[in-house]
Amino acid sequence: MMKNTLKVVLLTSLLPFAAVAEQELTPWYVGGGLGINNYEPNCDLKTMKICGEDDPYAWDVFGGYLFNDYFGVELGYRDLGRAEWTDYSNKRNDVGARGMTLGLAAFMPIAEKWSLSAEAGAMNYLISNKKNYNTEYYSDSGIAPYVGVGVGYNFTENLKLQAKYRRYENLDDDKYNTLDMESNYWGLELSYRFGTEKPAAVVAPVAVAAVVAAPIDSDNDGVTDDKDMCPDTPSTHKVDAQGCTIYEDAPISSRMEGVYFDNDSAVLKPESYDRLEKGAKYLKENQHTTAVIEGHASLVGNADYNMNLSEQRAQAVVDALVNKYGIDASRLKAVGFGEDNPLMEGTSAEANKQNRRIDAVVSGAEKRPVLK
C-alpha cells in the first residue's frame, strides 16, 4: 500500500508586464505654520484699558519623527506675536512670547486623504514687555503647557496641509509679577514628509511551479489522515481502506484458575468474583470461544460425594457467568471431576484449599489483529 502520495503540478504562464510603484516614506518630516494669536486677558476683556495696535500674527517652524503612522514627537520654534494696551497707570505695554517647543502628536485617518490630529507639549518661552514706548523693557522665561487639535488634508503622500487650534497656559511673568496670560492660536500648517517613490519596476514573464503538498499520514498506517477513520493505529497492524485494524479469529486453548470454595460448599467465595469477572470479560471480547467449567474437590470424604460436590461447584460458576455477567449458556459446560485431578497430594489445610477449586478450559477462536 502506498504510504505517501505527492502530486506536483508544473504550471507555466506568462504574467503581463506591469509597472509597480512603491512608496518608501521615512519617519521624518518638517514644516511651518502661520496664524493668528490672541492673548488673554487682553484689553477687550478688561475695563479701563485702552487697546493699541496689536501685531497678532504668529508663526512657527518644526520637525518631527513618527514612531508609526499614528504617533510621533515634534520639536519646534514658535513666535506667538504681540499685543498692545495702555494700563491703569497710563503706560503703554507691548507684550509678546516666543520660544522652543517639544510635544507629542497623534494622527487618526478619517478618509482616504483626510485625518484628525491632537497634540500636547510644553513651550520654553521668553516673554517680553516693551513698556512705555521702549523706555522700560523687561523679560522673563518659563515653561508653558499647551494642547492642540487639527484637521489635515494630504495633497500627496509627502505633502500635508493642516488647520490648527492651540491653547497655551501660564505665560507668566514671575520675575516682576506683572503679566499672567494664556493664549489661543488659530492657523494653517504645511508639512513635508521625507521619502522618495521607487522607480517603476517591470515584472518579467515568470514560470510558476505550483506544488500540491503531500497528504499527511500521521499514524503511518498507509491511509492518509483525510480518509483515516481510526487514527493512531499501530504501524505494525494491517488496516482496511478506512485505516482501521483488521482482525482475525485465532485458535486458542487456555485455562482459567483461581476460583475456590469452602469445605463441603458449592458457594463461590467473595474473593473469587474478581477472577470470575476477568474471565467473563475475556469471553465477551472473544465471541468465538467456548468454556468447559471443571469442578474439583479435596481428598477428604467419600469419593462419590465429592464427585457430586464438584459438579455442583462447576454449575455454580456457570450460573454466575450466565446470570451475573450475561454469558450465553450455550457457550458453557459444567463438568465435575471429584478427587481425580488434585493439584496437591494429601489432606493438609493447604492441599485441601488448592484442591477445592474450579478450572475453566477455554477453546475456540480469539480475536487478534492481523500483523503486517
Automatic annotation (TrEMBL):
Region annotation (Disordered) maps to 345-372
State where it is primarily located.
membrane
Q: Which UniProt keywords apply?
A: Cell outer membrane, Ion transport, Membrane, Porin, Signal, Transmembrane, Transmembrane beta strand, Transport
Q: How does it sit in the membrane?
A: Multi-pass membrane protein
> Where does the record place it?
Cell outer membrane
Q: Which InterPro entries match?
A: Bact_OuterMem_StrucFunc, OMP/PagP_B-barrel, OMP_bac, OmpA-like, OmpA-like_sf, OmpA-like_TM_dom, TSP_type-3_rpt
OmpA-like domain ranges (all copies): 248-366
Q: Does the keyword Signal apply?
A: yes
What span is annotated as the signal peptide, if there is one?
A: 1-21
- What's the superkingdom here? Bacteria
Q: Which family does it belong to?
A: Belongs to the outer membrane OOP (TC 1.B.6) superfamily. OmpA family.
| PANTHER family linked | LIPOPROTEIN YIAD-RELATED (PTHR30329:SF21), STATOR ELEMENT OF FLAGELLAR MOTOR COMPLEX (PTHR30329)
Q: What is the protein's name according to its record?
A: OmpA family protein
Source species of the chain: Shewanella electrodiphila
